[in-house]
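Journal club prep — side note

Before the paper discussion, L.F. wants everyone to see what a predicted structure for a comparable chain looks like in token form. Sequence:
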Amino acid sequence: MSRSLTLYTPAGVLPQAQPLRRAAKRLGALGFEVSIDEAALARHQRFAGDDDTRLAALHRVAKSAPSVAMATRGGYGMTRLLDRIDWQLLARSVEQGTRWVGLSDLTSLQLGLLKHAKAVTWAGPMACEDFGRTEEEGGVDDVTQDCFLEAMHGELEAIGFRTEVGFDGLEARGTLWGGNLSIVNSLLGTPHFPKVKGGILFLEDINEHPYRVERSLLQLLQAGVLDDQKAIILGDFGGWKKSPLDRGYTLKSAVEALRARTRTPILTGLPFGHVRTKVCLPVGHRVDLVVQGRDVIAAWGH
């Protein structure tokens, strides 16, 4: 079985080349045949090349259909491309075995593929942030690496984590979908937003104060999205700074406000987001969610 892996940059510019080279070397040592797209280091303003350059890179990767298509980083830029992407071209690459993996700004690519082609992609690590750190910066997280390898080799069948008390006995089955909260919200009302009912929605974000997280979640609630789900799973929401105006208001306060307004259970604790330790999640795959005590299992391998 081919283990080809292509690194490409569809959104924000890479400030330095060394993390990319370091990531390529590490991924190669893990057994992948790594190639770096010709435009991976392109620069135009804050983007990895102009829109045409990044769109061409995306289509080029899809045509080559590697075993793994891994984004080098997120940032911003995918939204500019959504109306021009050849979704069927990308869908054919998935049919040929390509696993598109990433997070953050790549949420729009993953949800677009779910909407336009019902294709399964992988929310997971990205090259520079997860595989490009120096040893002094902590290197590669073992859990992140092991989970990624299992997912890319078709061996990952479930993930588990601990949540808060109060959800013992919960069981749900539905399509797993979601990603970065800001990106999910930016797709609302567009042709690229998948209208998933009875799903399991996972969300994460970074550098967003809890009141902004609450506002975004309320927007999803008021749009009817949250009540249409069987469960909501929250990952990491770090990087924000406290304000003197908070007066005790925290992320927990925001979650409690949402729980008081929706009938859908909201679980916390998912190890996913802009953090070193992250699992891989099959976006668009049907999963079984089971809670025993505080232990949560999401399984899709049957």
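L.F.'s comment for the group: The mean pLDDT is 97. Keep this in mind when we get to the figures.
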